[in-house]
Amino acid sequence: MTHDEALTLRSATGSDVGRQRDGNEDAAYATTRLYAVADGMGGHAAGEVASAQAIAALRDLDARLTEPDLSGTDLDAELAAAVADAAERLDRQVGEDPALSGMGTTLTAMLWAPPRFSLAHIGDSRCYRLRGDTLTQLTRDHTMVQTLVDQGRMSPELAERHPSRSVLVRALLAGVPAEPDVAGYTAEPGDTYLLCSDGLTDVVPVERIGSVLGSAADPDDAVSSLIDLANDAGGPDNITCVVLRVAAGG
Fold it and tell me: Based on CB atoms within 10 Å of each CB, which residue in 12, 29, 35, 74 is the most buried?
């Protein structure tokens, strides 16, 4: 739990292999100020290696930010630098083991100095904000179908069920410069935030996700319910969720 003069953050994290995968290539990270989800890809153990390297870069950022109060910190710059570090780690890993060539990972991460936070994103993991009754997707999927939606060449409804909806146009990949979206936001008491891999969003309708976030007693209940919903829908992929609830501080 993080305490600030104005806000309190409560969080919970969960990851599940799903019902159709042999291993879990997702990774998550959650401390008092830094939260992230990474969804690895590359086959065999490569996806697991890639997501672990991304999380390791964030863990090092967390360790380097020794000040308890980050109110004077350029959150966007720090988080962007950590994503660049993650990409460099993938380069080094492939240089040491060419068999890992082609591995990559998504990464969606939040760095907090309440009430502000920075959100960095690359790939098709997502961040949602529930404010009142309104669920907003704060990230944009870096997928081929989302590009077609943005160009007006495909409807959002078709994109949601398109068989190629998971084909990425941007991700953290060895040998490719990192190009994350990075933006700053201000939280309000009552907000709930969700970071998740596409193992959730590919099979659970966004309206159901919003309903769970709004009705769950606490973040732990929300995480458990969302993972159960994805598995009840077949669990075709690994499922990872981080839920944060914002309240007025005491």
Answer: 35
